[in-house]
C-alpha cells in the first residue's frame, strides 16, 4: 500500500506524519503542489508483459495525461528480480543512479504499473517520503529537490512521461542528505 512519511530535513528520526490513507496522502502532497492520484489497474504486470502491451492497456489514461500536461514522450522503466550475481550488479547500479539528491528541469511524472519505489521530496525544511505502489501516479514538479530509492531488490514497472528527450537528466545538488534518511526497505519495515 502507498505510504507517506514526513520528516524534518534535519531530523530523519522524527516522524511528523505517517499515513497509508490515500486521500490524506493526496491532500498533504497537494498542499505542496505535488500531484498524486491513482489510476484503475488495467493490467497484471509480469516479467513477460511487454512494454507495448502495458502501454496499450493504459492507452486512454496515458493519452489524456499527455494532452493535459503537454507531455510528448512516454516510455517504460522496469526491473524484475532475477537470480545471479550479474543481475544483482545491474540492480545495484540502477538503484544508485538517482539515490542522491537532485532536481530536473521538467516535472518527473511516473505511473507505477507494478511493484514499489520511493520518492523522497525535499520540500522546504521537510522530507516527504512517498512509497509508490501499483496504481499510483506521482508528478514531482520541475526544480523540486528529491531522490529515488528502488530498494535492495528492485521490483517495479513504471510508465515515465517526458516533455523533452533529455527530461530525465538529473542536476545533482551534491548534498549528502539522502544518506541520513531511511531507505525504502527500512521505511516499509516500520510497519
Ligand atoms: Fe529524479
User: How far apart are the termini?
Assistant: 11 Å
Top-tier CATH class: Mainly Beta
SSE order, one letter for each helix or strand: EEHEHHEHEEEEEEEEH
Radius of gyration: 16 Å
Strand content: 25-35%
The number of distinct β-strands equals 12
Organism: Streptomyces genisteinicus
Pathway: Amino-acid biosynthesis; L-methionine biosynthesis via salvage pathway; L-methionine from S-methyl-5-thio-alpha-D-ribose 1-phosphate: step 5/6
Keywords: Amino-acid biosynthesis, Dioxygenase, Iron, Metal-binding, Methionine biosynthesis, Nickel, Oxidoreductase
Enzyme class: oxidoreductase
Can you walk through the features of this model?
The chain is an alpha+beta fold and 191 residues long. It has a single domain, classed as Jelly Rolls, CATH 2.60.120. It is built from 5 helices and 12 strands. The strands form 3 sheets. The chain has a 5-stranded antiparallel beta sheet. A 5-stranded antiparallel beta sheet has the order 3-9-6-11-4. A two-stranded antiparallel ribbon has the order 5-12. A hairpin with a 2-residue loop joins strand 7 (117-123) and strand 8. It is globular, with a radius of gyration of 16 Å. The N and C termini lie close together (11 Å). The model has no long low-confidence stretch (mean pLDDT 96). It binds fe (ii) ion. Fe (ii) ion is lined by residues 98, 102, 104, 108, 146, 148, 170. Ni(2+) binds at residues 102, 104, 108, 146. The record marks 107 as: May play a role in transmitting local conformational changes. It catalyses: 1,2-dihydroxy-5-(methylsulfanyl)pent-1-en-3-one + O2 = 4-methylsulfanyl-2-oxobutanoate + formate + 2 H(+); 1,2-dihydroxy-5-(methylsulfanyl)pent-1-en-3-one + O2 = 3-(methylsulfanyl)propanoate + CO + formate + 2 H(+). Belongs to the acireductone dioxygenase (ARD) family. Pathway: Amino-acid biosynthesis; L-methionine biosynthesis via salvage pathway; L-methionine from S-methyl-5-thio-alpha-D-ribose 1-phosphate: step 5/6.
